[in-house]
Amino acid sequence: MINDNITRRKFIRNAGIATAGITLASPLAGKAARFLNTDDPVTVKRIIDKFIAEVGVGNLSHTVDTLKSGSPDTVVTGVLTTMFATIDMIRKAVDLGANFIIAHEPTFYNHEDNTDWLKNDDVYQYKADLLKQHNIAVWRNHDYIHTHKPDGVTKAQLEQLGWTQYADKDTPNILTLPGSSLKGLVGHLKQRLNIQMVRYVGEPGQECKRVLFLPGAPGGMRQIQAIQKVKPDVLVCGELSEWETAEYVRDAQAKGDKLSLVVVGHIASEEWGSQFMLEWMYRNFPSIKTTHISPGNSLKFM
Length: 302
Hints:
- It contains twelve helices and eleven strands.
- A six-stranded mixed sheet has the order 1-11-3-4-5-2, with helices on both faces.
- The longest helix is centred in the last third of the chain and has 14 residues, at 242-255.
- Helix 4 (87-96) links the parallel strand 3 and strand 4 (100-103).
- Helices cover 39% and strands 13% of the residues.
- Helix 7 packs across helix 12 (272-284).
- The chain has helices at 8-17, 29-32, 44-55, 87-96, 122-133, 143-147, 152-161, 182-193, 220-230, 242-255, 266-270, 272-284; strands at residues 24-25, 67-69, 79-82, 100-103, 137-140, 174-176, 199-201, 210-214, 234-237, 260-263, 290-292.
- The protein is an alpha/beta fold.
- The chain is globular and about 60 Å long.
């Protein structure tokens, strides 16, 4: 269906993200250290500030991209990039000697990482104590990476899918692919994103050329409004509320519209944004050992 030439960069990506147990550390770390001023320590704040400066919008006044644990003045010994700073990812950071985790999603089970309601919760307390015990800083990079030009998550996901050349120049979430059936499209998504199964609404034989790609979980209203505006053959999304977008697509099909839906899962739809951060660290802080580990999907199929 789609040209499957894999560049060296894509090969490195495939090698580094397939499962939660596979890691990728910077091959430049040892050599690059000789060219940096070792008397100038790299702190958590220095890394955060440099990324924000590259985004170029200043400090956002309303953002979830805050430190969830640790101090901005911590001197970084190593970095772990991942989608979620799970307890398993914290333990892997400890094993790697990394004391800074850059995560894309919340650490404490709600969008703003409000912990007031968790004060007496054993799971929260265990996780917070583990971070404190090992002096690990966790920074959520969600709003800034999505504000980056281009959006770091979308850019990396499209590269992994081999879809960059099919993306609209001004709105890369809209793609015009070579002709493919829904079944062929699903097979490509599963192979490139390393997922076993997807949920879908549609006829497997339907032609899917115009694709609306909405990673993550923007919400049913935004998904449906985007469908209304773009008129895609298929919406490929991270996750949804089953009683919103899925029901809209079902009714659209009953009405006679040629519209399908593919739900790949939240992590699969945005994981490569953490790979984007890995490569950003290589370029900007090559002396810091940086590793990317996928937490994998929390949900399994039976």
